[in-house]
Specification:
This is Large ribosomal subunit protein uL10. The protein is an alpha+beta fold. About 60% of the residues lie in helices and about 15% in strands.
């Protein structure tokens, strides 16, 4: 189904709005992928907070023109699905995990602001921990010294109470 000029402008505006807030764009070829698989991929994308869309390449070229993702323009050919996310790792992880299970989805290229990645770069990005995982590790690292300090402070009265209990037990047996 072809789009008229107004529909094309709407699509370009929608994709441009997503690209403006994006930290990564991952492009994959979906040739031969069934409707059931594509529906499952879209459901996973919604859960992960990834904007996933099949758009004509010419419309995407217009949407990324003048943005930090403009380097992707020369690499868009064929039936492509675009994963755009605010979390740099989310789109790469989603499409890489799905590509492992479905050989018909082939990752072609990816980009972060002012940096275009090849397939190996996208796979390396997919293996990195997500932002939430990194924040939880940082919080655990920051809490460790405080926790140990509290345990140390708590140990002094505990030893004192144990000493008093030992003296009491010794007097009771005597």
């Amino acid at each position: 189904m072809s789009l008229n000029l107004d529909d094309k402008k709407t699509v370009v505006a929608e994709v441009s709005a997503e690209v403006a807030n994006a930290q990564s764009i991952i492009v994959a070829e979906y040739r031969g992928l069934g409707v059931v698989d594509l529906t499952a991929l879209r459901a996973n994308a919604r859960k992960s907070g990834v904007y996933l869309r099949v758009v004509k390449n010419t419309l995407v070229r217009r949407a990324i023109a003048g943005t930090p993702f403009e380097g992707l323009s020369g690499k868009l050919a064929g039936p492509m699905i675009y994963g755009i996310s605010k979390d740099p790792v989310a789109a790469a992880k989603l499409l890489n995990d799905f590509a492992k299970a479905n050989d018909k989805l082939v990752i072609k290229v990816g980009a972060m602001p002012n940096y275009v990645m090849d397939v190996a770069g996208v796979k390396a990005l997919a293996t990195m921990p997500s932002r939430e995982e990194l924040l939880s590790k940082l919080l655990g690292t920051m809490q460790a010294p405080i926790t140990q300090f509290v345990r140390t402070l708590n140990e002094v009265p505990t030893k004192f109470v144990r000493g008093l209990a030992a003296v009491r037990d010794a007097k009771e047996t005597a």
